[in-house]
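residues and backbone:
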Amino acid sequence: MDLSKISDEDRYRILEYVVDKVGRDSVKSALGVSRYTMWRLLNKKVGIDDNKLKILLNFLTPQEFQNVLSSRKLLEGIGVIRKDGTVNYPVVMEILKEASRDEYLKQL
C-alpha cells in the first residue's frame, strides 16, 4: 500500500477510529509519544507521518480500514461534508429530523 496516497484528513480519521477502538493510552504507547504530542495529534496540530500511520494501521482489520475511509467519502458524496471539509448543517438537520421518526434509532 502506498501510504503517501492517504490524505492528511484520512490519517486523522484513522487515528480517531483507533483511539475509539483501543483507547488513547494504548495508542500513545504504541506510537511512543508523550501525552502532549498525543493531544497535538488528536487536535490536528501536527501531522501523522508514514511511520505513525503504519502503527495505527496495525490496529485495523482490512474491513475496518475500508469502512473508516469509505464512510467519509459517502458523507462527502451525499453532501453532509462539503468539499472544504466543513459540515453542511442544513443537510445534517434534515437527516436528524428524519432519523428522529425512526423507532429503532430512538432506542439507540
User: Anything to note?
Assistant: The helical segments are 8-22, 24-31, 35-42, 50-57, 62-77, 89-99, 103-107. The mean pLDDT is 90.
